[in-house]
Structure prediction request, 897 residues.
Amino acid sequence: MDVQRKLEILADAAKYDASCASSGTEKRDSSDGKGLGSTAPGMGICHSYAPDGRCISLLKVLLTNACNYDCLYCVNRTSSNVPRARFTVDEVVKLTIDFYRRNYIEGLFLSSGIIRSADYTMEQVVSVARKLREEHHFRGYIHLKTIPEADDALIAEAGKYADRLSINIEMPLENSLAKFAPEKNVRAIRRTMGRLRLKLDEARESDKAATKAKPPRFAPAGQSTQMIIGADAADDKTILDTSANLYGSYRLKRVYYSAFSPIPDASRALPLVAPPLVREHRLYQADWLMRFYGFDAGEIVDEAKGMLPLDIDPKLAWALRHRDRFPLDVATASRDELLRVPGFGTRAVDRIIATRRLTSIRLADLARLHIPQKKALPFIVLSDFSPSPHLIDGAGLKERFKPKATQLGFGF
Amino acid sequence: MHFITLDSETDFDGWRKAARALALNDVTPSEVSWRVAGASPELFEPIAPPLEPPQGTFSVPAKFVELAEIAILHHNPERFALLYRLLWRLRGNHDLLAIATDSDVADVTTMARAVRRDEHKMHAFVRFREIGREQKSHFVAWFEPEHHIVELAAPFFARRFADMPWSILTPDVCAHWDGHAISITPGVAKSEAPTADRLEGTWRSYYASIFNPARLKVQAMQKEMPRKYWRNLPEASLIKPLIEGAGRTASAMIANAASEPHKPQKRLEPSKASDKADDMPHKHADDIETLREEAANCRACPLYKNATQTVFGEGAQTARIMLVGEQPGDKEDLAGKPFVGPAGQMLDRALDEAGIDRSKVYVTNAVKHFKFVPRGKIRLHQKPNTPEIRACRQWYERELAAIKPELVVAMGATAAQSVLGKITPINKNRGHPIDLDDGTRVLVTVHPSYLLRLPDAEARASEYRRFVQDLKIAAGVLRKSAHAA
Prediction:
């Protein structure tokens, strides 16, 4: 089988992993004339976008899609009839460098089906990173999938070469994982996330105190995980509670939500319907509210419903449930309060705070702050504007935000 | 009217020099007209009196210079005048840049952001094509930026591709790297650029394979990768056919019921856990290792759900003292071992001072899962309640039966409640051993994390001394029982 055919199979097998980030790592480049590549600290670079709206930043492939596990939601499960392939270590290394030199990618995201044993699989994955770093002095971005049961020495080596490590939690509920992925075990996944965090903390603390012997470098871009949405019955509240737990416990950089999508040769036990993309989008918005807007997991979802509304965003939905807190005077409200106004982003809030010390904020200024008027106005008081008191209390407020019904077309 | 001619579209130094002279001569923004050398000259140029050589100096915020250096690369011909107007107004109001709602500030900021975005997209969408092979290869790209960003964006490529010679050709200017320095040459026609690369077929099949036809989000793609870039991206010609085929592929996946499951022969090597089980000699049920394995799957209360793992006791099977704490903390939960966090370090120090060797004691907790609530990036410790303490007591009882220590030291209220079977105030009961009906001898004291929480340094020191004192009593109890034996 030629490399291009292998690439088709092993990229196809890797695409259900949503993560493609190349951000947040240390600053590196090759201006010393030895080696190839650099990182873009802060934000990553997306070199292309596929029509599924997902960014293509890394060469995202599996080392092999042969797998001993039989996870029902997975295209690579052992009982699936998809074609199988396996890259050699050298093939992945060469492909990464060839793509990188043409500026197609920021680096490599390597995962693998579980073959022989956790340690054997992890060793294969690590050997690609080792070769890229040690022999080719590759300074681009490397993201490695971590195999939960793998030996500590292999995990330490993975962290030495990789920018980011990840282990997928897969399902929001422990019993769903037991049902859909009989060989996987949430406890083993969590224990390894815990091991990663201890190593991450150790490496980070050593950056601050430069006194003692430096503990080894460990995945400067941290760890992340992914949850599949819509394959089991977990509601949004459960999903966000699980995320909050993971963020707090293991200091994850990101939790990715992946709407379960039909796969070739899918199992009969799973819903073969179009993926819940809007729900996935709302969960990402809710995740942002937790990480950047000071919301607690428990307050984002309406307790009584358990699900985020699909027609409006979660912050607006929260504001509509808490109308007594509005309207808010933009001239005096605290940062935390401003962050809860529908339509106000973190950057707009920072600008408001800097601006209002010097001058009052008027209706006409909203556009310059890139704040959508229609969304924000019912909730705020400006120096030359205050909303009608009937608006905030009226039943019509919610209707105002409903997306317009689209008329079904009919052929002439 | 003053006519200022700048050397090039990106001549920031020229603009800065002229702007400084104009401002020092009090020339108002409306009296200045800016243009770039080589651009079409105006037909009737009223002659302005030559500017006086600048007298004195004035300062502007450093942020203005940073902003202007970027905004000046925007393609809008009005940018020179706009920047001069902003500079003019900044002299009267030093805080002007903080007013995000000011229209000049907003315009310049928007321009700078557009330039940065274009630079970012250039970093992303340049595609090199290789000319020649191996040692003699040279990588050449054709790109059409929206703003005047080639010189701004070039150092990124020099740092990234330091070991290969490359050229980025554009209609405006071209940037080249020979392995040592960047050089800039005039723009060229697209026909000068190579038209193919041997890897493009592979790249295109990667692009097609990584696309998931079951989730079309064309608008999301176009928002980040606008059409104007498509003509220079080798993968972009696939976009249309992929979108057209997506519906078919996805509905075929949905329509095709799964085929008969494929059952390959498993070649899974035995895991380490089962190795161990096979190798180990059979031990009686109350062996600590057996208890630990059993407790790993404990579901006796709901605390297991949010925690990482059961943190079981640890220490010598022959230990004469058993130390019981409240519950594992953040670090213990991650490591799976008791007393490895800050409270554990405090305990180690106190044990050492009391003359007790930690390696010879058995250390455990009354509750074996970490109870907490997540708060952003941290976990706030929560006190276990009575049902949780009761549910976990079975493990303490079995540890006690396995270790048979001469003395149990219960540290803190939770441990005291579990060990003594009832709520027991620490201060009233500390300082002397308590003998229980079942023959267990118990000493109660505070939990080391209590010492960590005391805000007052003096109180902390004196409470620490009392804690060490209690541990010395424990050591004394052991010595006595050793003599008696």
